[in-house]
Structure to design on (679 residues):
């Protein structure tokens, strides 16, 4: 590996929520090392724990939630030992910043855009009001706001959704974070705006040298942004690897299912592949492989014992008994074999990525 | 491919204008829209938020007032003033499925009521037993259980709620369904289930769909013809394969480009194309929607038309050379 510096290391993390008199386990024993400077995409369906997992890094769990086990190491410190809000303020927004799906939740509707960016610069960099304003305008220009000087004094409602998201990114950058968590930052936006925002985030990551954790359920976005991919299912990471390993050599039946149901692979007149059933209830204890009841490849052991993380390559891991040496040899489904050739054929035939 | 003359036009939209007034400000949400939808096809309307696609859908089911133009359903005008009976006919035959399954269901009503609502409103059942049989059948068709009837919408997942929305529409035995981003709020795995379900109904019941979407990747698999709309204006209409093979309008091109492909090698070598109308050469007379090849329409004036002809030739040659 070219770059082995681990910037954030998660060990055996368990997160539980109290819901009235019941307990829901949202994160079930997750370990993951984030490499410095990389873009790690976290994918998985709704409720799989993507947001909860990353919220623990900044101490932003809802009040009914608790980390009941595990460690999160960052700059030589286990963040799970943070007790007070003060401890967290040294990290949150300063070292680890988050951009959420809905920019309105991060912006104050009654303050001007300029004020909100300057405020962060003054607070985190100790600059004067004048200096802060100058830097804020530069940042606004950097994230693609035209007429930044004029728009400095406008309010969030005067901005479009895409522009608001640019401002949220500018605010996140104002304190030069080490890690930027993007939690579905473009899900509410149009595809054309999404493409621009993703482009911006990637550019900024290079320029400012931060590590990106990008949460999404869109595999197209993953293919675009990610160096590494973590696939989550029912509160666990069930596969992790380099982006090409996940798309071209996936090993977990859930990853197979996600890729197989891509509409791009559908053929007119025949059914799209669909993963049947629904994810398990996180209120109950899960036995074996959580995906087994929905899997077409489940073996008896999948219902009895939880599989370990098997190593596929130095960079690729998957949590499925299919990788056990004793398991029968199973090939990935036909639809996703030669994925690249299939999609390339679509694009070459279509004018999509051809010369235009 | 069969020519257009052989097909039966189910819905015809002619020179449609929809204008909204906001504090004396005039906003033309739909500008001179013209298209036909044939019986039994899936016609997709694709564009960004605010482009007017939902407004067109809502105008067809009479939720938005039109300010000019005609909407003909089976040759009969259905916009503007209509008799009570005619209105009923429209509402019954044309059903709409909405993007946000949660928002379109009454949270305080049981599933039984939600699904029956249209039957109640139009008295479309003989007796209680008949109504129940219809509800059971509709639920079964979308893969839900009879036991679910006494439950409430919030007790279901997003995918299940979208099925309830579909059952609600299907129970009316419509001929034409407007599906407004029916799957954008759903997970990838659930999306496939809902699309399969909609396709099943299309085949079994000969339904016609107007499918509204912002994402071209889904539309490619699901629709027969596609109209691309930009700022209230339809800029291109073509059969699906034709549009993907020979996109002509620069906006169509940027929209196609923007959809991320689930393939890292393709994505990582892709360049970003931003459509900027202000940077285009807009000289010449006023453009209009013109047929450049059978069934393929593009918004252009004479000068642009000539450019598109050249472009088409180039694309065809490129394709021949690469076969
Ligand atoms: N405050 C809370 N109280 C109870 N349960 C919660 C709370 N927050 C999250 N959960 C539960 O934890 C699990 C993981 O949720 P999380 O928000 O991390 O999912 P996600 O993968 O981000 O999903 P999405 O794609 O919908 O954003 C879910 O079952 C969710 O219902
Ligand atoms: Mg989330």
């Amino acid at each position: 590996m070219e770059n082995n510096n681990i910037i954030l290391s998660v060990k055996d993390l368990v997160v539980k929520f109290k819901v009235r008199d019941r307990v829901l386990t949202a994160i079930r024993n997750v370990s993951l090392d984030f490499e410095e400077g990389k873009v790690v995409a976290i994918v998985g369906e709704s409720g799989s724990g993507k947001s909860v997992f990353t919220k623990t890094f900044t101490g932003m769990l809802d009040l009914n939630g608790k980390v009941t086990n595990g460690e999160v190491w960052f700059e030589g410190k286990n963040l799970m030992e943070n007790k007070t809000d003060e401890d967290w303020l040294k990290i949150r927004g300063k070292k680890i910043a988050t951009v959420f799906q809905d920019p309105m939740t991060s912006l104050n509707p009654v303050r001007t855009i300029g004020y909100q960016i300057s405020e962060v610069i003054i607070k985190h960099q100790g600059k004067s009001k004048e200096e802060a304003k100058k830097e804020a305008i530069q940042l606004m220009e950097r994230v693609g706001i035209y007429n930044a000087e004029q728009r400095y004094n406008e309010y969030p409602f005067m901005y479009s959704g895409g522009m608001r998201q640019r401002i949220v990114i500018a605010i996140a950058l104002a304190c030069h974070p080490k890690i930027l968590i993007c939690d579905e930052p473009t899900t509410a936006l149009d595809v054309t705006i999404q493409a621009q925002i993703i482009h911006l985030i990637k550019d900024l990551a290079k320029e400012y040298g931060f590590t990106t954790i990008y949460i999404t359920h869109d595999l197209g976005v993953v293919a675009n942004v990610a160096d590494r991919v973590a696939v989550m299912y029912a509160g666990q990471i069930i596969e992790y690897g380099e982006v090409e390993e996940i798309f071209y050599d996936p090993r977990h039946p859930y990853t197979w299912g996600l890729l197989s149901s891509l509409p791009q692979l559908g053929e007119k007149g025949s059914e799209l592949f669909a993963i049947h059933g629904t994810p398990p209830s996180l209120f109950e204890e899960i036995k074996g492989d959580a995906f087994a009841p929905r899997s077409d490849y489940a073996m008896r052991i999948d219902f009895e014992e939880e599989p370990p993380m098997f190593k596929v390559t130095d960079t690729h891991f998957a949590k499925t008994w299919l990788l056990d040496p004793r398991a029968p040899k199973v090939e990935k489904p036909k639809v996703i074999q030669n994925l690249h050739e299939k999609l390339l054929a679509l694009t070459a035939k279509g004018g999509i990525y051809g010369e235009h | 491919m069969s020519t257009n003359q052989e097909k039966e036009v189910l819905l015809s939209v002619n020179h449609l204008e929809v204008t909204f007034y906001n504090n004396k400000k005039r906003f033309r949400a739909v500008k001179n829209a013209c298209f036909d939808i044939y019986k039994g096809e899936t016609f997709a309307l694709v564009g960004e938020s605010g482009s007017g696609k939902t407004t067109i859908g809502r105008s067809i089911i009479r939720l938005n007032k039109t300010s000019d133009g005609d909407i003909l359903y089976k040759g009969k005008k259905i916009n503007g003033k209509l008799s009570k009976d005619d209105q009923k006919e429209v509402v019954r035959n044309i059903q709409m499925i909405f993007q946000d399954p949660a928002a379109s269901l009454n949270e305080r009503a049981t599933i039984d009521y939600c699904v029956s609502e249209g039957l109640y409103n139009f008295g479309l059942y003989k007796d209680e037993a008949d109504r129940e049989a219809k509800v059971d059948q509709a639920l079964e068709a979308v893969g839900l259980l009879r036991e679910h009837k006494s439950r409430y919408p919030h007790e279901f997942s997003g995918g299940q709620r979208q099925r309830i929305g579909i059952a609600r529409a299907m129970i009316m035995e419509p001929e034409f369904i407007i599906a407004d981003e029916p799957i954008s709020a759903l997970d990838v795995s659930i999306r496939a289930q809902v699309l399969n379900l909609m396709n099943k109904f299309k085949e079994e019941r000969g339904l016609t769909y107007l499918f509204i979407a912002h994402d071209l990747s889904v539309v490619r698999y699901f629709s027969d013809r596609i109209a691309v709309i930009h700022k209230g204006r339809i800029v291109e209409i073509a059969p699906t394969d034709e549009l993907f093979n020979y996109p002509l309008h620069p906006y169509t091109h940027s929209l196609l480009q923007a959809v991320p492909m689930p393939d890292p090698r393709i994505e990582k070598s892709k360049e970003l194309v931003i459509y900027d109308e202000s940077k285009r050469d807009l000289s010449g007379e006023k453009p209009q929607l013109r047929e450049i090849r059978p069934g393929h329409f593009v918004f252009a004036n004479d000068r642009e038309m000539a450019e598109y002809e050249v472009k088409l030739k180039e694309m065809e040659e490129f394709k021949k050379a690469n076969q």
